[in-house]
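Practice record 12: protein with phosphoenolpyruvate.
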Amino acid sequence: MADSTESESRKLLGRLREAMASDDAGQARLDKITHLIADSMGTEVCSVYLFRDDETLELCATQGLNIESVHQTRMRIGEGLVGRVARFGKVVNTPDAPNAKGFRYMPETGEERYSSFLGVPVQRLGEMLGVLVVQSKEAREFSSDAVYALEVVAMVIAEMTELGAFVGEGAALSPLHQQAVLIHGTSAQEGAAEGNVWLHEPRVIVTNPIADDPQRELERLHDAVEELRVGVDKMLEVSRNGDKEQLQVLEAYRMFANSKGWMRRMEEDIARGLSAEAAVEKEQSQARARMSQVQDAYLRERLSDLDDLSNRLLRILTGQGADTGAELPENPILIARNIGPGDLLEYGRGLRGIVLEEGSVGSHAAIVARALAIPLVVNAKRITTEALNGDHIMVDGDQGVVHLRPDETVVGAFRDKIAMHTQAQERYASIRNKPAVTTDGQRINMMMNAGLMADLPSLDGSGAEGVGLFRTELQFLVRNQMPKRSELKALYQRVLDAAHGKPVVFRTLDIGSDKVLPYMKPTDEPNPALGWRAIRVGLDKPGVMRMQLQALLRAAEGRPLSVMFPFVAQFEEYRAAKAEVEKTIERERILGHVLPSDLEVGAMLETPSLAYAPQKFFDEVAFISIGGNDLKQFFFAADRENERVRRRYDTLNVSFLSFIERIVERCAISGTPLSFCGEDAGRPVEAVCLAAMGIRTLSMRPASIGPVKSLLLRVDLGELRKIIADARHRGDQAVRPAVMEYLRGL
Ligand code: PEP
Ligand code: MG
């Protein structure tokens, strides 16, 4: 088939289908297929190489090479021409293979006799399954038609591999999606969970890759694309007045849905014998392969839009909706490429764990997962292609590791870990209602951080004495548009109701830097963390701040209210913000609204400058909360979002602890209540050191209250303080080693 016509291509696929329908075992089928392809392509050799494991390709069937080398010849990805096809997902087509770049001679196959080589990837939806190769003695470059024909065949082989067609006696191939897989990702929420896979977007299974009536397939494709276009237009109509970003995505969808190039390629695939769904999947697979090579963020987004659109089209064609009728399994562990906060909230607390192929530690999904205290691993490469609904899975949120279809030893070890977690939880539950008093009688207030409705049940469950930091921006971040004042009021009211009189500190909108509202015009700043953020935005554009203050005042309605402003860098900013509060109160009074019974206005200390504000600031401010995450990044000039530097400086560095001590002293002079609400408050060792420096209120994630309290109950702060002073005196850079030694001896 040197000059492969569409009808020849169809004939070959027809013969492949017959081979598949036979009762032959997996290996016999594969052998027959290589024979048919070589025959049809007019080549002496056709071979199929499939992945044995992530790194190794194995010759699984051949027509023309030494038959003894089947299941013996192996190569690593990237090795030889076959390995190069697999590594780069690209076709290699050369008339002179022995002299081509990367050629590796494999004597056992007897392949030195063959000059021309054409290898195409066997891939399915971004998953590289193997390589299909034809070779001939005659030195010739294969025509683009021949390449295309082989790609179509490779697509069919990929589908068949997925369906397990080559598994069986003598095949020496284990079926896909049955082996144990270990995936290393990034931890985004601690905890260990065991359960069963629930795919947020189930895989569409194509059971009929080959079709013999191209006319009928074309009609099916056209009907489905039409249905898709109408659907996209409808969505566009609905969102016309809504969120701009969503509109942009839909516009891009429409562009693809009307793309002539996309349509033409699928029509050609069908003309060569593929079914409509296999044609869609072939183009989708190739787009995914391109996606993995593209660095440009914009292009990646566009390719991912095309991917979404292909999924929709496949669902229309196969009738396999997003809702497959499958029921959420017991102990569901959610698997997704990525997921929005809204969708995640809908699943709610029923989930045991979450694994995302993309996502990031600071993403909104991560925020929600933390609020729900569900173990979360992000950056888990290939999880959506590896996992199937119902698979047994274990998620280690502490280490960022996922065990898919784990074997017995892993299961045993993991269950021990879960048991230890459970025991620890039981221990924490037993001290839930006990005050955190150290052995030398110092009482520490244990508060929790919150931001979503989903956090509220933790107020009772964790033993928190109140909410030390309510991050109000989360409610803004999880929406597609600016919330209304009435909505916010209702929400804040629910928070105060749930607190049953325990104190709640509402932090006003803290946006900018890493927290970008999807519906606000982005500002292009060279250094967003040092830019227009938090109180700076609030003071420059006071409209939203006033609206939020009104909502807070109305929610309190006769109850006490605590409000604090984020990222105050100087006294003047606090004064200006406080003046806004007073103006708002005056307006509320005139409007006849019931005012809070008591109002405290505090400031977050997140920049070193505020620690050296005039003492009068400390006299005037109702309370101060140290935002350790930001404070530490500015103190050490090390970006909290930058993996390369964020762990470089220890919180227990003597410079930082001395600085904290200075803040404690300045607050003490004015009698200003002081708390610490950064992540370090929830780390037991850091927390006891902060307490030793004089901090008496710690605010942390609810799940951290147990572990921190448990350690506080065992330490003597006086002794710890002395250990810290000695280490400082000795000239240690960080007090951690000395402190750890003391703690180990407890
Ligand atoms: C902080 O900076 O420590 C803090 C609590 O605020 P956020 O993490 O929300 O910036
Ligand atoms: Mg902060």
